[in-house]
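#structure-requests
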Amino acid sequence: MISRTTRLWLLIAIPALLLLLPVVAYAVDRAAGSGEIARNVTVDGIPVGGLSEADALDLLRAHEDDVQARTATFVVAGDTYALSGTTVDLGFDEEAAVAEALTANRSGGVGDFLAWAGSLRGTEAIEVSYGVDEDLVEEALESFEEGSIDEPAFDGGVEIEAGVAVAQYPRAGSRIARDGAADLVLESLTADSRLPVTLDIESVNPRLSDADIDAAVEEANLLISEPIVLAAADPEVSILFTSYGLASALRSEVIENSPTTIELWFDEEAVAELLSTYTTQIEQPPRDAAFVLVEEGGIDIIPSRSGTKLDVTAVTSVLDEAARRVARTADFPFADGDPAGFTTADAEAMGPFSKVSEFTTKHPCCQGRVTNIHLMADAVDGTVVWPGEIFSLNGTAGERTRDKGYVEGGMIGPGGELIDAIGGGVSQFATTIYNAVFFGCYEDVEHKPHSQYFSRYPVVREATVNWPTIDLKFRNDSDAVVLIDTKYTDTTITVEFWGNNGGRTCTSETSGRYSYREPTTEYIPDPLVNPGEPVTEDDGLTGWTARVTRFMEMPDGEVIEQDWAWSYVMKPMKVRIHPCEIPEDDPLYTGEECPIEIPAVVGLPVADAVAALEAAGFIATVATPVDVADPAQEGIVQTQDLIGFAAAETIITIAPGVYVEPPPDEPPPDEES
């Protein structure tokens, strides 16, 4: 049995629960539908309750597409025309409609609960306002008029015939009444009824007079009367617009102002067509600032330029202005393209520029090597070395070939001998530019002095080159460019460096010679050389070492010392000797015995001659005597077949003389009497 207390609690709790149940349902429903449109909301009759903002927008846009697909029928002067909503851009503001739907049945506080409760019983309908594009409506009406109005009103115009502007005079006529026409089209497209709507026709007078048209024709002929030239210097462009071309681009239109006027202009699309063949000339890539040497000395900066693009609008505007001037010329306008990577300001920031270093070497006139020196100087002249860049003499001048004009000149051969070769002598240019590097205080990356010392060059502070193995390289370790200027005469070559090395100055100090190396002797076996009679072909050179120091003074006073030591090779003395005299410690030693000198026995009696030859180690043989006219030469050696040197036991043939009495003299012939 339920107690009195329990019954009392039940009597209180049950009504309370009944009151709280709707509140709980409201809270659960609102939480579940957070961010969604409330239930039972419609937009233009389309249910959107429970949808997210994005889904509602998609649904209403699809609905708008359906509405735009509707057509209305209009009657103009007995002719029927169908017009779709799409043609005049029929539509409404979907975003605004969804925003309003999101707030429907949501008022906050107690009112929100009441709105929620009300939504359970009824629908919240949101109406929208449709609209059309009045310009598109005007186009539609004009198309109706073209098909149905036999005598339309005409405000007049300007036509081009055979390159000349001619008048199209105005006339009165009829047209579709414009007052309220746009509203009528909107009503017809949104109405439930699809009955045809008749559009009223009204009589209208032209808004322009014959005098207005005559003035426009006069102006038009002025605009196209003479050719127009638009030109620019950088990039170089010069475009001639002929009178015919101008006429093809001229357009006219009646403008409804107060008062109404006729406007003349050049059509951009037509102007673009006239410019189509000049596109590559007009549209240029950007040009970086550049540096050039001036003849009197110094550096000029060629300004940078942004890339250029065709700007048809600007060209058309300038063309219109030029057409109204007597001169009929104007600057060609460009649109900016890509900016230059290295601007004029960047170039100017590298300055101030001055001559950083200069060096000159001398040479005799008119030798083949001078031609080669001049050719290499020409190849290097004007070279720009950028900050951080490594300059290569071989890379800049390239291979020295006959095709480039190089000729034979002296150079050191592989064995240290002086030879003639194509391009020989250019090491003098290498030495000259190396000294410009040295005194310009730039970083020496690679150089090699000559293996042998030549007195025309500074000791150690010189360089040689050979394609492609031996190069001269330096790094531009300044913040400014280096421009190389080369100059020459018949007897001198000069290299100048122009730039800004940051205020560094360099001087040089050369040590005395040390570590002398006297020439050794290099024997050349030659069997034609008599033993004991050596022939010196080359006296050789003494080798020695020296050092050069560069003192680089920085702008803050710090002095940096850099040393280069170089050993000039010892060049051996070259001596030709008979192979038998090659010393035993020489790689060419053969142990060959030396030949014996053959005694000269001509003029000796045969017995003495034989004895002399045999005493010297030779075998003597007597050949058939030769006739002699002197009795005193009887038995005296007249010839021997070998002289000079020969190996022991070589057979030496001698021929003695034998007296032959001459025949008696014949008497002279008798003289006839």
